[in-house]
Amino acid sequence: MIAGFSNRRRFTDLSEPEVLALAISSEEDDAAIYRTFAQNLRAEYPGSAAVFDGMAVEEDAHRQRLIELFRIRFGEVIPLIRREHVAGYHARAPIWLTRNLSLDRIRSEAAGMEAQAEKFYRVAAAHTTDAATRKLLGDLAAAEAAHEKHAERLEARHLGGDVRAQEDEGARRQFILTWVQPGLAGLMDGSVSTLAPIFATAFATQNSHTTLLVGTAAAVGAGISMGFTEAAHDDGVLSGRGSPLKRGAASGIMTALGGLGHALPYLLPSFWTATAIAMGVVFIELWVIAWIQNRFMETPFLRAALQVVVGGALVFAAGALIGGG
Hints:
single chain, Ferritin, disordered N terminus, two-stranded parallel sheet, 2 strands, mainly alpha
């Protein structure tokens, strides 16, 4: 690993043929990434897929111009040099290999790619002494900077009318199905179902340490159970609810957090102080659940608040009665 890293070249040490070769390979990579984005989006967002197809075609045109210049100046053999061979070059995490990327994340990544490419061409233009090469690299820097406008033209062509609104709504719906619904179910389960064992233990023992152990065990156990249940019961293929791993993670983590919220106050040695804080945390948790239901599920806030407060109050009362009995 160390030897491999030491073999990377500094950009300032590259020759002009190597700078051009790096630009050629970068344009080839960018075109391939855009086509991958397009392919991943084609089924659900055909309009956005067409935009990325158009951007890939433009990257191909840039690559061809660079190759033609290289042939004129340096011949037919183009050195093999890529981003990962140059120290400090804008290496990218391969997020295009990640399944179920959100539409907003893909658009954001594409904007970042264009900004990085523009910066590279401006630095490369300053690095060369040949007038024709400097002009081409400067033109490509301007072209990358203008890609935002080009993308807007492509979007106007392929995402006109209600198409973009429909795609954005589809992306929002997918976000809700994959993350919000499982996370909300987990938060509700963790916040409400653990009330009874935690407060039953609290009032039965009036001991902070014992209550903390029971509450932590209940929260973690519920998180593991909810996470595995969510991931295992639906693979997302027919339901369209997305990756079972993402849904399982959202459900499991939020379940554990919901339970730990009113268990962790018992880290305090003073039992009644910890209990008062835990009750305050429960109120905040129930308010957050109602807000999420109102914000993402379009449930009227008062109705959502009434539902979670009544449910939480019943479970809390059951725990208090059992623990105090």
